[in-house]
Amino acid sequence: MPTVKILHDFLGCLDKFDRVVIKPSSKNPNRRNVYVSSVKKRWIQIDIRKTNINICMDHNHGDLSEEDVLITGVTNKRSRGKNGFDFKVDSQNFDAVHFTFYESDTFDFNRKEFLDFMEKHYRSYLRLVRFR
Description:
The protein is of the alpha+beta class. It has one domain: Yope Regulator, Chain: A, CATH 3.30.1460. It is about 25% helix and about 30% strand. The chain has three helices and six strands; from the N terminus they run αββββαββα. It has helices at about 5-10, 65-70, 110-130; strands spanning about 20-25, 30-35, 45-50, 50-60, 85-90, 95-100. It has a six-stranded antiparallel beta sheet. The longest helix is centred in the last third of the chain and has 17 residues, at about 110-130. It is globular, with a radius of gyration of 14 Å.
């Protein structure tokens, strides 16, 4: 699956969320930033590479765990050519999930488990930015 298709499929799963704004980066033509409404804190950063896309998603500290991500079917070991994720905890500010999706390792972004995770992540991000 070409990286442009991976990007399209991932962005498609964001359609159900209110007030999502996708903006190309002014500094990097291979980056997309996802915001909610006019909030200045980015929800998602997507970097498009030759054979994969990297997705970094910020959420409220303590709201999610590695187990929440594992339920999606993505392995927690990132390695070259295989989809995976890292889970970052920063008790000072916010936590983040870093996904890598490769064109050689297809993933269904419409899986119920992934969409449920995205919903939970979206709600956590809204708490992070105190959006009402």
